[in-house]
Amino acid sequence: MEHFNVGVIGSGPAGLSAAFPLQAAGQSVVIVEEYLWGGTCPNYGCDPKKVLLAAVEAKEQAEWMQHTGLIGHNEIDWPALMEHKMAYTDPVPARKIAGLDDAGITHKYGHAYFVDEHTVSTGTETFTADKWIIATGARPARLSVPGDELLHDNEDFLNLPKMPEEVAFIGAGFIAIEFAGIAAAAGTKVHVVAKHDVILREFDQDLTQDLIAQMESKGITFHWNFDTAAVEETADGRFDIVAADGRRVTSDMPFIAAGRAGNTEDLNLDAAGVEVAGNGIKVMADLRTTNPNIFAVGDVAESPVPKLTPTGAYEARYVAGLLTGTEPEEISYPAIPTMVYGSPKLGQVGMSAVEAEAKGMRVNSIDMTPWLAYWRHKEPIAKAKVVLNEKGVIIGATVLSAEADELLNYFTVAINQKQDKWAIKHNLYSYPSIASDMGFFA
């Protein structure tokens, strides 16, 4: 039976971010994958989504500039855009395997499950490791309602050969808002079915209302306080999402986008003494599970941070460092930016405006729409809320604009480096640019 110093279950960004530094530090490593090498993000998650958004963003900017330097009408050619996306995603698994081979990391294909705390089997092979890292990621949470099997998920959307004429998304979080914007830009009639009367509850609701208004201006319809009770196929081959109060939303293709759940099933965690909690695996301050020889990182770990690709990779690098003696016994997280790639984008980092206002802290609300960085291409809305402490140090920011992801990265650096207004104003940036506006926020 093969034995390794460390075994990793899952080959997504978290799993790979643990495997490579461990191997480089002289540890023998095995990594196990049951689906696509590379995991969700590069195959059917954030990376292909961003490829599709390239066309959406180009189309929107051209529309803003109509009769202000541009004329003509642009349409998204969905099959051609899918072909462009597949040029990125199709080679991913082979590239990941090649990288593992080059690094000398043993890789196994199959569904991994624990036999005991050191032994894992795929059904055809069994091997052991001194330590195990579980990085199995998450999957779309399903609805316990009749007809749930009729709902499509994010992987289906990102592989659509043809965009349907009318689609519906159940949910009001990141995925629903992002995919709704993409589908609407592609010329599809879009419905967002929300269980409550808000979207993106973790964000400032002033700015989410602005986002809703922008989405509605693109023809997206919101159905509020819609408690989905069933999904039914109609006589003409379409689909009804049925609410508990009898309302119906009809579309050609309904999607589930109501959160995600950690992939903990069928790992036989009991055999390894690993407990689950909430939507994932229970972890301690050093990301050990209830078995000190087994760790959990990324989306499957029930850790108190946003479930994002950078967060999972950060946790994995930390565990790799812990196992090789270069990290402390308790993980410490920097400020973590979260970004909704909607139309427009909405992101926040550090203390939210909601939390700051509840604590009576200073929050600057800024309308950036007339600023050159946004006015030059006629962007319809650009706003920010910036939280400062009593010393004038930026400790939080929320941004709504087409370039929110870029601006939020500058805020993230400022917050993590604890830059006061003097430090921010003493940075020199290329001008005029989004970065050069940083001095106006301090």
TrEMBL record:
Residues that bind NAD(+): G171, A172, G173, F174, I175, A176, I177, E178, G259
Xref: InterPro entries: FAD/NAD-bd_sf (IPR036188), FAD/NAD-binding_dom (IPR023753), FAD/NAD-linked_Rdtase_dimer_sf (IPR016156), Pyr_nuc-diS_OxRdtase (IPR001100), Pyr_nucl-diS_OxRdtase_dimer (IPR004099)
Needed cofactors: FAD
Residues covered by the FAD/NAD(P)-binding domain: 5-314
Keywords: FAD, Flavoprotein, NAD, Nucleotide-binding
Protein origin, superkingdom: Bacteria
Pfam families hit by this protein: Pyr_redox_2 (PF07992), Pyr_redox_dim (PF02852)
Disulfide bond positions: C41-C46
Signal peptide interval: none
Residues involved in FAD binding: K50, D299
Molecular function as annotated in GO: nucleotide binding; oxidoreductase activity
Cofactor: binding details: Binds 1 FAD per subunit.
Pyridine nucleotide-disulphide oxidoreductase dimerisation domain mapped to chain residues: 336-436
TM region(s), chain numbering: none
Similarity section: Belongs to the class-I pyridine nucleotide-disulfide oxidoreductase family.
Protein name per the record: Glutathione reductase
Organism listed in the record: Weissella cibaria
